[in-house]
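Predict structure. Chain length: 176.
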Amino acid sequence: MPRDWDRHYSDPANLSFDPAPLLVQVAEMLPPGRALDLACGPGRNALYLAGLGWQVTAVDSSAVALALLRARSRTVDARLADLERHEFAIDPAAYDLICDFYYLQRDLFPAIRTGVREGGVFTGAVHLFEESRNPSFSLHAGELREQFAGWKILYYSEAGKPGRSRRSASIIARKA
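Prediction complete.
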């Protein structure tokens, strides 16, 4: 059964505006440019990047999450779109940075790869497969690294993160 993201983001207990630590590392490596935050939720990563001077497009299917984002920033281009229904197209070579944290849609990887400009970066984290979980929403070991074969892998890990009960694959990859 699909999750009701509007209901999820309506509960203050489910909100966090702290950026992903991996994104903070990436932002320190790059000068501000154009960024795309996929499945952004209420915009924790988009807000952080915008605060550093990035021109950010943030996409999510939850109107509630995007209303929270818009209430905190007038500069982030917040787009309501269902990625699974392909309601948002990633323009080729349009972004210096694309981030995707804890959202998996395998058929987006080709568009992500073409959407990053030469020299640009993809960063993200996705849960790893566990026997008790739906494999449609989890990666297998090594799968995230394989999606960026031919790119310079600046960081890769398949480990548990503090405060998270599940293991995830995390990556920072630069397009050659």
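Summary: The radius of gyration is 15 Å.
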